[in-house]
Amino acid sequence: MATFQDVDPATGEPIADIEITSPEALQAAVRAAREAQPAWGDLAFAERKALLLAGAQRLEARADEVATLATREMGKLKSDALREIQGWTGGMDEFLDEIGAAIEPETLPAGDSETALVRDPLGVVAAITPWNFPVGMPLELFLPALGTGNACVFKPSEHVPLVGAALHECFSEGLPDGVFALVQGAGDVGAALVESDVDMVAFVGSRATGIRIMRAASDGLKRLVLELGGKDPLIVFGDADLEAAAECAVRHSLRNTGQVCCSVERVYVSDDVAERFEGLVLEKARAWRHGSGFEDGVKMGPMVSAEQRAKVEAQVKVAVAAGARLALGGETPAGPGYFYPATVLTGVEHAAEITREETFGPVVSLTRFSGDEDEAVRLANDTPYGLGANVYTGDVERGRRVARRIRSGQVGVNRYLGGAKGSPWVGARQSGFGYLGGIEGHRQFTVPKSISYPKV
Ligand code: ADP
Predict the structure, then answer these.
(1) How far away, in angstroms, is 300 Cα from ligand 1 center?
(2) Which class for 351: exposed (0-12), middle (13-18), buried (19 or more C-beta within 10 A)?
(3) CA atoms within 13 A on the CB side of 424
(4) Does residue 449 contact residue 108 with C-beta atoms inside 8 Å?
């Protein structure tokens, strides 16, 4: 039996040995999913909803246990893990209703004829997820997959196999055999799943893996939803509320130890207010103490792995060698665990590697600019990514104008990005392919079919 080691990033100590799903078992899971899918897809939505809602209730009852597992496996604050779980379980009824609304048949009349527009499930969906939101990301993928009538084979990240297994226990109980399967392992198991007889791959993770998946999925013209990384800018104009902008810059560069796809990754501040703004950022970032995610008063846990930390260390070193000033942090602490402190860099060149490559770590990277509107748009758009952006200005009209010109899926003006309930989660350009959430997002798990007949 082949296994991999599940490691606690706060100590570097092993938690458990996890059995890797064998190629034969993976193929059998996909076959069983295909056999089970038609009957599952034929159920009335209300029946599927009731079964999934029961899954959410089981998760709610196990919230403390699953939050503890999340903190042990990937390091995040336990309070954040609990909020992640309870946010989902609390909003589950509404979320499932939105899925139901997405597949509600429509009637389109035309002269003597009528067309029924229905949305069929695709068949079997592979859901492949990352570790940074170990509960939210899987739910965001497997609930619309199952809710719209697909069967689903779920592979959690190899960094959070026990959280993945707990989610699978909660949501597979009571479902017909084969409809919802779990496979465990790293990228090779993910790749085997993409190449197996699935109809769609729903994926959240890195751009590099997204590109690999798209290539591998092309043989079977498999449908794809890929939510990838970002290099989100935050623009601070001279007339901005600097206090609010600094709070946003710090919180959203450091939250979840910076391991968020829509983190603030680069801050552009107008020359005329830069000194004051940098002072505010420093003052706020000093309060972001790191430590175990179980400890009170700690604001950031460890990074997920030694490799992830090494990438951040290297980026910071290169930025400093190229002339950026290390205003805070930047020193890897001695001792066990993959900790990295809250770090603030000022005077970062726009051309520097750290403003180009995704950092995915607890770094506030500050670059000064002229304060000009066109310049702000040019800097924000000078990246292959397009996940999110944030703009702070005292002139709301200017904020709206700049937001319209930035090429990304979501923009926050004088607040952190994030659409109201019902907005899909979108990545423009190389931050994604397709989208998730909202009626439009749920429909990505279906194919529309028109059935036309003479009017009676
Ligand atoms: P991260 O490690 O930053 O989460 P990845 O994109 O490497 O980002 O991983 C996200 C998910 O994709 C994980 O579940 C991982 O095991 C899986 N994965 C990695 N490589 C592949 C691949 N070639 N094909 C399919 N899945 C993969």
Answers:
(1) 24
(2) exposed
(3) 22
(4) no
Q: What is the pTM of this model?
A: 0.98
210 pLDDT more than 90: yes
Q: Residues lining ligand 1, CB < 6 A?
A: 128-131, 155, 157-158, 186-187, 190-191, 194, 205-206, 209, 212-213
For 190-199, write each residue's pLDDT tens digit.
Answer: 999 999 999 9
DSSP 120-185: EE-SEEEEE--SSSTTHHHHHHHHHHHHTT-EEEEE--TT-HHHHHHHHHHHHTTSPTTSEEE---
Q: What is the tens place of the pLDDT at every residue in 245-299?
A: 999 999 999 999 999 999 999 999 999 999 999 999 999 999 999 999 999 999 9
**Cα 309 to averaged position of ligand 1 atoms, centre (Å):** 17
C-alpha 207 – ligand 1 centre gap (Å): 10
The number of the ligand 1 atom at minimal distance from the alpha carbon of 191 is 24
What domains sit in the chain, N to C, each tagged with a CATH number?
Answer: 3-228+429-454 (3.40.605.10), 232-420 (3.40.309.10)
Ligand 1 atom at shortest distance from the alpha carbon of 208? 6
